[in-house]
């Protein structure tokens, strides 16, 4: 099976630096199921192409299967895995281009951090859902998609098309993002993996999907397919994605038999409950101007924009990539001048004073503080409560006590969480902050209440005391 990556960014041969593979060399990398070879069919200043060729050894693949894997007898050796892009190619790519996927490039770090023109080609790609599904998963990520079905037999057109596509993606994308997207989406399109999946697959998905998956309109479908339609793993993965405050539908497709057994009403995703709660607090507070601090890819901003009561809206995030997603979500390039004046997006760090944070009736920190190192929390408190001084501050954060109720979850709900507080710790922190900066505080729970462990999300509403000096 073959994958090619082409760029026209000049000098195009810098692709070799980004991939950490020299254009003048042919390199082999042994995998448990075959051999991956990297070579460059073309390498000029104006255009450079890197190719990853994976030669699968059916016998080694069969021997690498887990002992408890189903035995498909002859199908273990006679199948499409030798030529069709699948999870095998995703695993090999993740291994061979591991440093590139991390976004590290000591000699060209600025380039590694930048979006560059890329063309990715897969001559044979299994895709359950055909051309429409390929477009559905890649186009929201900024790719232009060319997908052509491959006929079962070109000599017998009446037989129709196979489930395979020729796929070419073009776009201006950061290389590390492109590789991470492929790592997730190759097995999603094929809807098959060559290895047994356990709870650690959720961490792999969150790691590869960081910065783009949660903002994808089909995040739930991608998650479900990536995890082999395992209901338990999918529920846990969607719950953890929702904790980041992004757009994830936490509904799991079920089979007809499961539908017959399911008696309880469909639950509202926690993320939606959180957005509903914060939105209502803002309306009850009479806020007209709102800043979303740590807005991520902008799903809550989209909710604010649809509410006419908010006449001035701003979103701030430390990640420029998240802000790019937010701009696309809000269709800023299509807004009229009058509409655009109502919305502002800017990059900034919440631990440093910034005059752009000030002047708002309300500030929202939704699932943000747990991403800040504990040693930097005092700096955030100063920036928000003492320097910016909004009339209302709404903070939500996970309740650590509830984590034991998530099946398969060990440790924090997201790999980037620096800490997670129980209810007592959150009470202590919010009382101290309110008293130190002239606010009164009210705490509420969000999500399904467990008598022992509380709610999955805890929320503090800080209201500035009247007569408090700025």
From TrEMBL:
Cofactor list: Mg(2+)
Keyword annotations of the record: Magnesium, Metal-binding, Methyltransferase, RNA-binding, RNA-mediated gene silencing, S-adenosyl-L-methionine, Transferase
Enzymatic class: transferase
EC annotation from Swiss-Prot or TrEMBL: 2.1.1.386
UniProt domain Hen1 N-terminal: residue ranges: 1-242
Gene3D superfamilies referenced in this protein's UniProt entry, alphabetically: Hen1, N-terminal domain, Vaccinia Virus protein VP39
An individual GO BP term: RNA methylation
Domain Methyltransferase type: 291-393
Catalytic reaction equation(s): small RNA 3'-end nucleotide + S-adenosyl-L-methionine = small RNA 3'-end 2'-O-methylnucleotide + S-adenosyl-L-homocysteine + H(+)
InterPro entries named among the record's database cross-references: 3'-RNA_MeTfrase_Hen1_bac (IPR024026), Hen1 (IPR026610), Hen1_N (IPR024740), Hen1_N_sf (IPR038546), Methyltransf_12 (IPR013217), SAM-dependent_MTases_sf (IPR029063)
A GO MF term: metal ion binding
Entry's family note: Belongs to the methyltransferase superfamily. HEN1 family.
Protein name as catalogued: Small RNA 2'-O-methyltransferase
Native source species: Flexivirga oryzae
Species classification: Bacteria, Bacillati, Actinomycetota, Actinomycetes, Micrococcales
């Amino acid at each position: 099976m073959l994958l090619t990556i082409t760029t026209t960014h000049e000098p195009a041969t810098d692709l070799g630096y980004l991939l950490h593979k020299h254009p003048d060399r042919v390199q082999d990398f042994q995998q448990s199921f075959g051999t991956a070879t990297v070579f460059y069919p073309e390498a000029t200043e104006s255009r450079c192409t890197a190719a990853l060729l994976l030669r699968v050894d059916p016998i080694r693949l069969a021997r690498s299967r887990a002992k408890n894997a189903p035995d498909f007898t002859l199908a273990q050796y006679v199948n499409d895995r030798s030529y069709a892009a699948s999870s095998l190619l995703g695993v090999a790519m993740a291994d061979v281009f591991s440093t590139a996927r991390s976004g590290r490039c000591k000699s060209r770090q600025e380039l590694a951090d930048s979006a560059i023109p890329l063309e990715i080609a897969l001559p044979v790609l299994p895709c359950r859902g055909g051309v429409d599904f390929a477009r559905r998963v890649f186009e929201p990520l900024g790719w232009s998609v060319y997908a052509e079905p491959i006929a079962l037999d070109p000599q017998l057109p009446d037989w129709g098309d196979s489930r395979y596509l020729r796929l070419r993606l073009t776009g201006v994308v950061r290389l590390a993002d492109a590789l991470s997207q492929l790592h997730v989406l190759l097995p999603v399109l094929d809807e098959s993996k060559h290895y047994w999946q356990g709870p650690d697959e959720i961490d792999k998905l969150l790691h590869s999907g960081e910065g783009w998956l949660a903002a994808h309109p089909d995040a739930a479908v991608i998650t479900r397919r990536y995890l082999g339609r395992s209901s338990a793993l999918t529920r846990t993965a969607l719950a953890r994605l929702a904790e980041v405050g992004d757009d994830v539908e936490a509904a799991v497709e079920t089979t007809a038999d499961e539908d017959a057994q399911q008696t309880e009403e469909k639950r509202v995703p926690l993320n939606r409950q959180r957005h509903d709660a914060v939105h209502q607090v803002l309306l009850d507070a009479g806020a007209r101007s709102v800043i979303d601090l740590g807005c991520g890819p902008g799903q809550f901003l989209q909710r604010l924009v649809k509410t006419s009561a908010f006449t001035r809206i701003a979103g701030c995030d430390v990640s420029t990539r998240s802000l790019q997603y937010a701009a696309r979500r809000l269709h800023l390039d299509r807004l009229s001048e009058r509409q655009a004046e109502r919305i502002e997006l800017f990059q900034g760090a919440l631990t440093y004073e910034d005059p752009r944070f000030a002047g708002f009736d309300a500030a929202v920190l939704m699932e943000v503080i747990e991403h800040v190192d504990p040693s930097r929390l005092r700096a955030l408190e100063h920036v928000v409560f003492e320097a910016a001084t909004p009339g209302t501050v709404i903070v939500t954060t996970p309740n650590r006590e509830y984590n034991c109720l998530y099946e398969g979850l060990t440790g924090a709900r997201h790999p980037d969480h620096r800490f997670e507080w129980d209810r007592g710790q959150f009470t202590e922190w919010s009382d101290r902050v309110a008293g130190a900066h002239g606010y009164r505080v009210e705490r509420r729970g969000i999500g399904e209440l467990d008598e022992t462990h509380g709610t999955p999300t805890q929320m503090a509403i800080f209201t500035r005391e009247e007569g408090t000096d700025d």
